[in-house]
């Protein structure tokens, strides 16, 4: 009888091991934007590739639209092991590495090709891997695009936004950028922006075309001014504990899948920006304002002193390297 009980217990424990081994590794990927954006599409592509290449071994669960976490909460959740992948805007990392603030400096990059060159340069790659001591592993940069200003009022020059409230991401550089033009910046989570605009609690916001379109900000703003004054790109991150705890073959396959998903997301970013701009114009709900070279220069003159304010934190060499990326 004792022998039978021991045998049954042994079989039960073997079954537990088998079912534990058979259970796929769950990978929660949390982000704050809609699925019809470069980041939303990249996340879906990553799920498709990872599950196709590791059938039964991994399950990728995507939580878009801040369903699970806001960006300020998600990095902590990563460190605590509550979520495995996130892709916050570069502007959200200042408390983990203040050098990443370089990406927020206004009018630093001429275009997305320059951004791409800088991200691929030795300096850019070093930044990607600069937060391992905080248990954050960079898996890659992902593009969205250059930001525009949307507002209830027509904006052409810096004086037009003096005294106006603008939502910004949690970035001190962005705060300084608005203070430089005497506007009132408010650090708010992305999930609150639509309601803040709709209720007129704020006057405007800054986003790339894809976010202004996908999150319907254009429906509650009368004007979008094409300033291209700054960048909104992402850092795809995972936690060191999760990443290095994976079996080598799984990690290699996930890494490759993520690289391909990022390439796919970047292709979408390159085309979607202009398509969403056109969709906003075609909606007739908001007017797109194109500024002249002289008006643009007024913005540059007013905002560029911000570079000097953050030079010590970011490093003059790093700012120089970013400037160099504008030159072919
Ligand atoms: C924002 O907060 O405006 C952005 O980070 C949203 C996003 O992820 O594109």
How would you explain this protein's 3D organization?
Helices cover 47% and strands 18% of the residues. Strands 1, 2, 3, 4, 5, 6, 7, 8, 9 and 10 form a ten-stranded mixed β-sheet that branches. The longest helix has 36 residues. It is globular and about 60 Å long. About 2% of the residues have low confidence. Bound molecules: (2S)-2-hydroxybutanedioic acid. The site of (2S)-2-hydroxybutanedioic acid has 11 residues, from loops.
Condensed summary:
This protein has 328 residues and is of the alpha/beta class. The chain is built from 14 helices and ten strands. It is globular, with a radius of gyration of 22 Å.
- Tell me which CATH architecture applies here: 3-Layer(aba) Sandwich
**What is the CA–CA distance across the termini?**
82 Å
Number of helical stretches of at least 4 residues: 14
In CATH terms, the superfamily is Bacterial extracellular solute-binding protein, family 7
Cofactors and ligands? (2S)-2-hydroxybutanedioic acid
**What's the helix-strand series?**
HEHEHEHHEEHEHEHEEHHEHHHH
Mean pLDDT: 94
How many domains? 1
Helix content: 40-55%
Q: Count the E strands.
A: 10
**Low-confidence stretches at least 5 residues in length (pLDDT < 50)?**
13-20
> Given the helix and strand composition, which structural class is it?
alpha/beta
Secondary structure layout plus pairing:
Blueprint: H1 2-22, E1 25-30, H2 38-53, E2 58-63, H3 71-80, E3 85-86, H4 112-120, H5 122-128, E4 136-151, E5 165-168, H6 172-179, E6 184-187, H7 193-198, E7 204-208, H8 209-214, E8 223-226, E9 231-239, H9 240-244, H10 248-283, E10 287-290, H11 293-303, H12 305-309, H13 311-314, H14 316-324
Parallel strand pairs: 1-2, 1-3, 5-6, 5-7, 8-10
Antiparallel strand pairs: 3-9, 4-7, 4-8, 4-9
Helix pairs in contact: 2-10
């Amino acid at each position: 009888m004792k022998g039978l009980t021991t045998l049954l217990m042994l079989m039960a424990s073997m079954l537990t091991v088998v079912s534990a081994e058979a259970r796929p590794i769950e990978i929660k990927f949390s982000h704050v934007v809609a699925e019809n954006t470069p980041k939303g599409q990249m996340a879906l592509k990553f799920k498709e590739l990872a599950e196709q290449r590791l059938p039964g071994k991994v399950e990728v669960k995507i939580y878009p639209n801040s369903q699970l976490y806001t960006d300020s909460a998600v990095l902590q959740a990563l460190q605590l092991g509550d979520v495995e992948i996130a892709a916050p805007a570069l502007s959200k990392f200042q408390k983990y590495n203040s050098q990443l603030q370089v990406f927020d400096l206004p009018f630093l990059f001429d275009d997305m090709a320059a951004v791409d060159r800088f991200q691929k340069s030795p300096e850019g790659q070093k930044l990607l891997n600069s937060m391992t001591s905080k248990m954050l592993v960079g898996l890659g940069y992902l593009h969205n695009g250059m930001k525009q200003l949307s507002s209830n009022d027509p904006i052409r020059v810096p004086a037009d936004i003096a005294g106006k409230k603008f939502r910004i991401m949690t970035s001190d550089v962005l705060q300084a950028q608005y203070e430089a033009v005497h506007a009132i910046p408010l650090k708010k989570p992305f999930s609150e922006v639509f309601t803040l605009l709709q209720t007129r609690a704020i006057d405007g916001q800054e986003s790339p075309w894809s976010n202004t379109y996908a999150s319907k900000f254009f429906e509650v703003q009368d004007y979008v001014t094409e300033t291209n004054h700054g960048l909104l790109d992402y850092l795809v991150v995972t936690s060191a504990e999760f990443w290095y705890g994976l079996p080598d073959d799984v990690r290699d396959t996930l890494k490759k899948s993520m690289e391909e998903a990022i390439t796919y997301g970047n292709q979408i970013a390159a085309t979607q920006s202009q398509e969403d701009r056109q969709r906003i114009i075609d909606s007739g709900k908001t007017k797109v304002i194109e500024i002249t070279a002289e008006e643009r220069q007024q913005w540059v003159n007013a905002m560029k002193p911000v570079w000097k304010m953050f030079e010590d934190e970011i490093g003059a060499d790093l700012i120089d390297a970013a400037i160099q990326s504008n030159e072919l």
